[in-house]
Each structure stands twice: as C-alpha cells, then as structure tokens.
Automatic annotation (TrEMBL):
This is Queuine tRNA-ribosyltransferase. It comes from Candidatus Defluviicoccus seviourii. Residues 16-369 form the tRNA-guanine(15) transglycosylase-like domain. The lineage of its organism: Bacteria, Pseudomonadati, Pseudomonadota, Alphaproteobacteria, Rhodospirillales. It comes from the Bacteria. Pathway: tRNA modification; tRNA-queuosine biosynthesis. Keywords: Glycosyltransferase, Queuosine biosynthesis, Transferase, tRNA processing.
C-alpha cells in the first residue's frame, strides 16, 4: 500500500482482461471483483456474515440515502459505517451522482451544488462536491466517489457535454476536498454518454487531475449491451493501466464477462439482490424464474456448482413454494444464492485470467448460458 491512497497491483493480463489486487484500509480485494449493493447500510435480505460467506470482499453503500437517513454525522458518532453495519471489509460509497439523474423530478442543479427535496419527508438538502466528499469521510468509506452529473439515455448531445464538463469541474473540487490517508482513495468518474469524443475528453481531464482509480459512469441506463461494450472499447484503453477501473451499476452475468474482457476490474449492481426478491435465480445455465409452475415438482437444487447452502441444499420445488407463498425465506435464499453465483463467476474469471485462458472461459460461459436450464425428468 502506498503512503497515500490505495494500493493496486496489476498481477497479470490475458488480452484486455486484468487480474489485480486492491489494498485498502480494511483489507484486500482480488480483482476483477463484484460489490454487492448495500444502499442503506444493508445488503437487502442478507446478514453481513451471509454476504461474507459468498466470497464478497467489498460492498457498496449510498451517500445520498445515508445522508437522508440516518445521517452521516450520526453514523460517524457511532463509529463509522463499518461498525454501524457490522461489515469489517472495504466499503465503496457512491456520491449521489446517480440520484442526480434518477431523482430529477426532486432536484435542482447549478454550478455550486445539487439541491434535493427528500423523497422521505420533503426536506431540502444541498449536496455540493465538497459536502459529498465530507459525507463519505464521515462514513469512513475506503473508496470515495466524486460527485458527478449522470445523464439519461437518450439525451441531447449538448446536455451530455454540459453535464460531462460540469462533472470535470466538480471532480477537481472533490480532489481538493479529499483528505489523503493510507488505505483510502478517491475515484474519478468518466462521463460523456455514448459519445466517444466526450468520453475521451472526460478521461483525459480526470487523469490530468489525478485519482486513485477511474470509474466509467453513465452506462446501463438504457443504451443496451452492444452500445455499452462499444463505449468501453473506446474508453477503457485511455485509462491509466496502473489504476483500478470500475464500471458503475453493471450488470447481468454476461455484462460482467464482456466488461472484464474489455479491461474492467470492479463492478456493482442491484440486479442479483433485486432479482432474488422477485423470484429470479441466476445459474450457470442461465436465469430461471422460480414462480413458474414447472418448478413445483422439481427436486433439483438451484446450482450445485455454486458453493453456497442456498444453491445446493434446497430443492427448486421448495423455493417455488416459498416464492409463490410470499415467504420471506424465499427472498433470503434466492438473494444469498444470486450473490454467491456472482462471486463464483468472478472467481472463475480471476482464475482463467491467471492461467491465460480467459477467452476459453468466456466462450464456455456463453455456451452454457445459451444451452439453458435442463428440465427435471
């Protein structure tokens, strides 16, 4: 670990796929890695011990939501976010930039800050770049994200350019506000929609400022996988190879495999937890919907290849019953399995990169997903 900031070691490459190790104040993360989303200081439906048992090394929490409830100063008084949520490992906190887009009806924006009208009680909160960094410091996040302006898809090119350049100015303000400490780091966020030139301008501007890592934001907002991959192919090679690269808010299993193959190191997404609460399970042979009647008499487990009790020890028939009955245990078990499946997928990719067979791994993954699940006899 460097005297200031995070430590990142690039252990090897296979094509554009990268195998690395990220060192933080609260432990190491082997990359490529997937971070379960713990928006409000909890990965929904799971205890911290269950999250850790899946192989998850780092989780994500949300600056905007924790600012509103219970408040960053309160969490700081109670010992910081790690102590508050009983998660001893690394935590990355997003900055509220996504809420600039998703809560557009509840906010106003200018050069100085974003003013939100709380979706909880209507109270007004101003989030400036400096305040976003301060909140994440109070939370004791290992990785702080700059405040940015995320644009939807589609959007007018002039609006995308305006938001990207404002995000660059905010990134510089975040850099000045950030307090350097061993094991803690600040990531810049590349914006620019699906415009390769704007993405290049953003990447160059951020690297001129200098950050501990670089995220690609503003994707998985409706542009589709093919366009997302094209943006990554144009953008990722422009990012400093000695720094970690993070694709925000992505995605489904095939998104992860495709993005790792294009040089991404870190991911987060609500899909595995949200799907678990709505009856969907991801498996090596593709996703399955446990609400479907065909599972009512199926004695098989979800996926014996995944090292998790929820994946191996419960029949699909029982899980179908829990989901159709609206039982809480169904959401718990499917969420546990989905996070474990994602972590098994990431572990498989790390091994494949280290052994120089990532292309074969990706081809086998695609073939299994295309094959689909096999009906019980």
């Amino acid at each position: 670990m460097s005297a200031n900031g995070l430590g990142f070691t690039l252990l090897g490459t296979d094509g554009r796929a990268r195998r690395g190790r990220l060192s933080t104040a609260h432990g190491m993360v082997e990359t490529p890695a997937f971070m379960p989303v713990g928006t409000a200081a909890t990965v929904k439906a799971l205890t911290p011990d269950m999250v850790a048992a899946t192989g998850s090394a780092m989780v994500l929490a949300n600056t905007y939501h924790l600012m509103l409830r219970p408040g960053a100063e309160r969490i700081a008084r109670l010992g910081g976010l790690h102590e508050f949520m009983r998660w001893p490992g690394p935590i990355l906190t997003d900055s509220g930039g996504f809420q600039v887009m998703s809560l557009a009806a509840l906010r106003s924006i200018d050069e100085d800050w974003v003013e939100f009208r709380s979706h909880i009680d209507g109270a007004r909160h101003r989030l400036s770049p400096e305040r976003a960094v301060e909140i994440q410091h109070l939370l004791d996040a290992d990785i702080t994200m700059v405040l940015d302006e995320c644009t939807p898809f589609p959007a007018e090119p002039a609006d995308v350019a305006l938001a990207m350049r404002r995000s660059l100015r905010w990134a510089e303000r975040c850099r000045h506000a950030f307090r350097e400490r061993p094991g803690y780091g600040l990531f810049g966020i590349v914006q620019g929609g699906v415009d390769a030139d704007l993405r290049a301008e953003s990447a160059a501007g951020l690297q001129a400022i200098g950050f501990d890592g670089y995220a690609v934001g503003g994707l998985a907002v409706g542009e589709g996988q093919a366009m997302m991959f094209r943006v990554l192919e144009a953008t990722v090679p422009q990012l400093a190879p000695q720094r970690p690269r993070y694709l925000m808010g992505v995605g489904k299993p095939d998104d992860l495999v495709g993005a790792v193959g294009r040089g991404i190191d870190l991911f987060d997404c609500v899909i595995p937890t949200r799907s678990g609460r709505t009856g969907q399970a991801f498996t090596r042979f593709g996703p399955i919907n446990l609400r479907n009647a065909r599972h009512a008499d199926d004695p098989r487990p979800l996926d014996e290849s995944v090292p998790c009790p929820a994946s191996r020890d419960y029949t699909r028939a029982y899980l179908h019953h829990l989901v159709r009955s609206g039982e809480i245990l169904g959401a718990i078990l499917l969420t546990w399995h989905n996070i474990a499946y994602y972590q098994a997928l990431m572990a498989g990719m790390r091994t494949a990169i280290a052994e120089g067979r990532f292309a074969a791994f990706a081809a086998a993954f695609a073939a299994d997903q295309t094959r689909g699940d096999i009906d019980a006899l």
